[in-house]
Every structure is written in C-alpha cells, then in structure tokens.
Design brief:
mainly alpha; two-stranded antiparallel ribbon; globular
Length: about 290
C-alpha cells in the first residue's frame, strides 16, 4: 500500500497523463471544430516519433530540437490532408450529413496507409535511442532526465494552448466555432481558415507528442493505435469538443492507467482504460467533467 502513495507513481502518472493531454487536445480540436473522427491521430504520433528517431540517429540532432521539426512536418501534413480530402467533404452539403461516418472511414484508410508505408520504409523492428537517460533523485523518487523533459515540455505546451484558446483572437475563433458554427460565421469568423488552423495545430501537437514519446519508448510503425484509442477515451471523458476539460480528462486517464496497473497487473492496461470509459459513460453520458463546451 505504501507504494501507491509513493512519489514514483505520482511522477509516472503525471508523465503519462501529460502525453495523453497533448494527444487528446489535438484530436479534440479536429473533432470540435469540424466533427471529424480522426482515427489516424495515433499514426501522426508515430510519424513524429520516427522523425525524431531518424534525426537523432543520422545527424545527432537533439529531440528537444527535432520535436519542432516533427511538429512542423505534422502540421504541414495536416494542412495537406485538409486541402486534399476534407475541405471538399466539409463543403458538400449532402456528404456533410454523414460527416462523422465518412470522416471515420477516410481517416481509417489514412491510418492503414501510414502504417504500411512506415513498415515498408523502416521495417517493423522496434527502434529506440538513449537521450537524457541519467537518473536524477528527488528524495526517494528516481527520475530520468528524459521523462522530466517530457513533463516540463508538455506542461508548457498545455499552458500555451490554454492561453491561446482564452486570449488569442484565433483561439477565441476556434472556441466560437466549436460552440456554434452558424453563429461564428454570422459574427465574421473565417470558417475555412479556422478549420485549416485546427487541422494544422491538431496534427502538429500529435507530432510533438510522438517526438517526446520517442525519448522514453520503443517505436514501431504500428504503435499509433493504442494512442488513438487513449485519445478518443480522453476526449469522451472530458466531453466532445470541450478542450480545457479534455486536458483534465487526459491527466485523469494517466492516473487511472498508472495506479490501476500498480494495483492489478500490466496485462490489464487496456481493460482499465476501457473499463473506466464505460463506467463513466453509464454515470455521465456527456463526459466525466461536464456538458458545456469550452
């Protein structure tokens, strides 16, 4: 029982939760502004992880720098996907009536393509590198430098996202679009520009999360699906389209995973995530933390 109250578990939960927050924030941006179900979101995480891995392996570039490259490339890929596939889908009145289903199928196809192209280019062998893996002790808590870096960077990105959504004109426009699409258009919000921005930011955050993960975990072409699932669970727990409460839900899921595994078994990892998800939906159909988008 003393293990459950240790700082070691608390630190691990904060690191995992911060990654889930970044992934879910990007996923929620895409869904909240356009009602698109991004089933390929975890595969963007995978691409970001491979970007940092290869830049570190081939040129020795620090992942603390290559994460910017991974984020920019992922954002550019998101913009290309928006213009190539979803701009026309969103503009078509007939197709927009089945938007969630159509987008789920399109993103699922993108996911399969990305996984197989990555497997063809990089093969399926798990890859990893060591960076900032020295042990740092705070009292009885042993932390690796890379996990401390992940936690700090994720916290800074979440704070920046919160401030952007609350104070920046484009952040306010994103929130307006999430709350009421027609009303946002009436008051002068450029819907297409905000949709493109949401795609770019959402995909960019996923790429950044993948880059951070590459410092602490092995990467493979098929690593993305569990993160897609965790992202969707987090989004549902926080409320669909609810960005700020989705951040809290991501941290909550990280605590459930770490403390649940400590109490049970690592083999029950997925059972814990799905179990909490189902229980919360039974108790509160609009999400764990409320009904109102924000």
């Amino acid at each position: 029982m003393s293990t459950l109250f240790s700082g070691q578990l608390l630190f691990a939960a904060l690191v995992v939760g911060s990654i889930y927050v970044l992934i879910a924030l990007g996923l929620n941006l895409v869904f909240g502004t356009m009602r698109l179900l991004d089933a390929a979101h975890g595969d963007i995480v995978m691409l970001g992880a491979y970007t940092s891995f290869w830049l570190f392996t081939l040129s020795g570039m620090s992942p603390l720098l290559s994460m910017l490259v991974a984020g920019a490339l992922s954002a550019g890929f998101g913009a290309a996907i928006y213009y190539g596939l979803f701009r026309r889908l969103l503009a078509n009145t007939q197709l927009s009536q089945r938007l969630e289903g159509n987008s789920l199928l399109l993103f699922f196809g993108i996911s399969i393509i990305l996984q197989n192209v990555a497997a063809l280019c990089f093969d399926t062998t798990p890859r990893a590198y060591t960076y900032l893996d020295g042990i740092i002790r705070f009292g009885n808590v042993a932390m690796t430098g890379n996990r401390i870096a992940v936690l700090i960077i994720a916290a800074v990105l979440c704070a920046a996202a919160f401030l952007f959504l609350r104070f920046h004109i484009y952040g306010l426009a994103i929130k307006a679009l999430i709350q009421h699409r027609q009303a946002a258009a009436v008051v002068g919000v450029n819907i297409e520009r905000i949709q493109l921005l949401s795609f770019a930011i959402g995909f960019g955050l996923a790429g950044l999360a993948g880059s951070l993960l590459s410092m602490t975990e092995q990467i493979t072409p098929f690593m993305g699906f569990p993160f897609t699932v965790a992202g969707f669970v987090t989004v549902i727990l926080g409320g669909l389209g609810n960005l700020t409460r989705g951040m809290a839900a991501g941290m909550f899921l990280g605590f459930v995973e770490i403390y649940g595994v400590a109490l049970t078994s690592p083999s029950l990892h997925s059972v814990l995530i799905y179990g909490v998800f189902i229980v919360v939906l039974f108790l509160q159909s609009q999400g764990l933390l409320g009904r109102r988008p924000s």
